[in-house]
Specification:
Elements (H helix, E strand, L loop, with lengths): L5 E5 L4 H12 L3 E6 L3 H15 L3 E5 L5 H12 L8 E4 L14 H29 L2 E8 L1 H4 L5 H21 L4 E8 L5 H4 L4 H9 L9 H13 L8 E4 L5
Parallel strand pairs: 1-2, 1-4, 2-3, 4-5, 5-6, 6-7
Helix pairs in contact: 1-2, 1-9, 3-4, 4-6
Bound molecules: NADP nicotinamide-adenine-dinucleotide phosphate (NAP).
NADP nicotinamide-adenine-dinucleotide phosphate binds next to helix 1, strand 2, strand 5 and helix 7.
Length: about 250
């Protein structure tokens, strides 16, 4: 039996990561899925995708903001039957809303650790296998705030701006090895990240500012991520905006 392609997706227990897992499973990829907290939900979801699409889904707890957790996940991967991932999607992320002057240093470090340091840890561990194979794809899920900045989301904007620069720089470093590195800069996507902190009135005010007149869906981000994996390796170092013409 020929080996299936494998994708590793961080933060797959809900929202965008969950939708990305589904589209790759539908297309016959084996999956490594991780999250920090909701492992039971993630494991049930992995089983559902395996049964429905005839793929293997390995689910694990990994706090991507801790290098030791990421190293340990890659050790598990090296011993697993489905092998190293050809595609790595750095999706796990958190938000924090408020004035920068009210943010504690711990909150700042948690934000930068989860949204930016994680992308370094994941890439560092994924790259050696990709280089040996002469191909690989890294997709970082980032935000329009990383391009233009948002009031009351300074740390978030800084973390995503960091991921954008990281993406462009790493693409230059890895293009000679045939490895593609791109990012999807999302606008407002309909997930818990927004619904958990915005009232209905605030959501409708936000929607009215978006020319497409609606929030994006996790499935649209997933479709773009899958299309990027199908794209020629020459398409690399790009920050592709998916925001309904908002920004
Ligand atoms: P979400 O619904 O809040 O889901 C976040 C996911 O990340 C969950 O699966 C969560 O799992 C996981 N996670 C959080 N911290 C983690 C950690 N330290 N280690 C491992 N997993 C962790 O968010 P979303 O809206 O789908 O966002 C996904 C990505 O898109 C994020 O990077 C976000 O910044 C970006 N984005 C979202 C929007 C939007 O409007 N929704 C816009 C722009 C960019 P557990 O809680 O189970 O650990």
């Amino acid at each position: 039996m020929s080996k299936k392609n494998t994708v590793l997706i961080t933060g797959a227990s809900r929202g965008i990561g969950k939708a990305i897992a589904k589209i790759f499973a539908q297309n016959g990829y084996d999956l490594y899925l991780c999250c920090k907290n909701n492992i039971e939900t993630l494991t049930d979801y992995g089983k559902e995708l395996s049964e429905k699409y005839g793929i293997t889904a390995v689910t694990t707890v990994c706090d991507v903001s801790f290098e030791a957790d990421v190293i340990s996940m890659f050790k598990t991967i090296s011993n697993s039957s489905i092998g190293y991932p050809e595609v790595v999607i750095n999706n796990a992320g958190i938000a924090w809303y408020g004035l920068l002057s009210d943010m504690t240093a711990d909150e700042w470090h948690k934000m930068i650790g989860t949204n930016l340091d994680s992308v370094f840890y994941m890439s560092k561990n994924a790259i050696p296998h990709m280089v040996r194979n002469g191909h690989g794809k890294i997709i970082n899920i980032t935000s329009v705030w990383g391009q233009v900045g948002a009031s009351c989301e300074v740390a978030y904007s800084a973390s995503k701006g960091g991921v954008n620069s990281f993406t462009k720089a790493l693409a230059k470093e890895l293009a000679p090895s045939g490895i593609q590195v791109n990012a999807i800069a999302c606008g407002a996507i309909d997930t818990e990240m927004n619904s958990s902190h915005l009232s209905e009135d605030e959501l409708s005010e936000l929607t009215s500012e978006i020319p497409a007149d609606r929030l994006g869906t996790p499935e649209e981000v997933a479709e773009l991520a899958f299309n990027l994996v199908q794209s020629p390796a020459y398409l690399t170092g790009q920050i592709i905006t998916l925001d309904g013409a908002w920004i």
